[in-house]
Amino acid sequence: MAERDEDAVRAASRVLAVLQAMNREPHSTLHSLHGATGLPKSTLVRLLKTLTADGYVSSDPRHAGYQITSLVTSLSSGFHGDPLVVEAGRAWAIGLSAEFKWPVAIAAFDRDAVVVRYSTVYDSPISPFHATINMRLSLFTRALGRAYLASCSDEQIDTMIARAGSGDSLESAEAREHDRVWRMVRTTRDRGFAMRDPNVEPRTSDTIAVPIFARGVVQASIGMTYFRAATNAFGSRDALVAALKRAAEGIGAEVDRLTAHQK
Questions:
Q1: pTM attached to this predicted model
Q2: How far is the CA of 124 from the CAs of 93, 96, 121, 188, in angstroms?
Q3: 60, 132, 148, 254: which has the fewest Cβ within 10 Å?
Q4: In the chain, which residue ranges form alpha helices assigned H by DSSP?
């Protein structure tokens, strides 16, 4: 009986590992999943057949691989982290996507990164990504992370740099180098918005992000992702930045209102 229980736990862990790996890339192959999870390809085939039968995965003949489906989002339905920012930002994010067509995301800080807590990927007809919910993004190279980091105090920033340098990170050691990070922070603060490092993938798209302030401190960041070749077709960068800043101000004000109402 104990061996059977252990087998069940191992199988569940493998399924979760596959879903996590698939959530990090637009489409997956047996080769990429084998590299990401270390699972034998024969095991992956069985798991993918099960996930496909249950509706969580679909085969993608265009890329000779697999994609997770929107049903995966149901697995996070019970997550209630950062409720005020998400509650306050949902309507703003949907409105921005309706106006500019590009997907909008709201991300909150989590230990050593920011995590996407709300996204309009499925509302956008021209999204560069297939899914971003619960995606962890670097504080040093990703726009949503940079917008949050640059809005922290100088002491907090130094602490985050030191913490990232002493352990695993989402990006290279070079990206976390102290002087380089501070140059990015100063540039972000001077221009009033953050952009993704142009040297990280995917290079066909870009993200603009701004911080969301409430209760006197930065609470989260909000950003919009677009294909670089089509920026002006759906609004200039200046127009996107201005719209994001208006949304951030509105979300912050709503968080303050909700906070006051709860007291």
A1: 0.68
A2: 11, 10, 5, 27
A3: 60
A4: 2-22, 30-37, 41-53, 83-100, 143-150, 154-165, 178-191, 237-262
CB atoms within 10 A of CB 171: 18
pLDDT in tens, 115-130: 999 998 877 666 656 6
Q: How far is CA 51 from CA 59, 68, 78, in A?
A: 10, 9, 20
Mean pLDDT of the chain: 84
pLDDT tens digits, one per residue of 80-111: 556 788 889 999 999 999 999 889 999 999 88
Largest CA distance in the chain: 63
Gap between the Cα atoms of 96 and 104, Å rounded: 7
Q: Which ranges of 23-65 would DSSP assign to H, the alpha helix?
A: 30-37, 41-53
Cα–Cα distance for residue pair 203/191, rounded to 1 Å? 22
> What are the DSSP calls for 107-147, one per residue?
EEEETTEEEEEEE-GGG-TT-S-S--TT-EE-TTTSHHHHH
SS3 74: helix
Point out the least confidently predicted range of 23-27, 55-59, 187-191, 253-257: 23-27
Half-sphere exposure of 254 (CA within 13 A, CB side): 17
Q: How far apart are CA 195 and CA 223, in angstroms?
A: 9
Contact 228, 166 (CB under 8 A): no
Q: Among 138, 141, 91, 100, which residue's Cα sits nearest to residue 118?
A: 91
User: Which residues face 105 on adjacent strands?
Assistant: 119, 223
Is the peptide bond preceding residue 26 cis, with omega within 30 degrees of 0? Answer: no
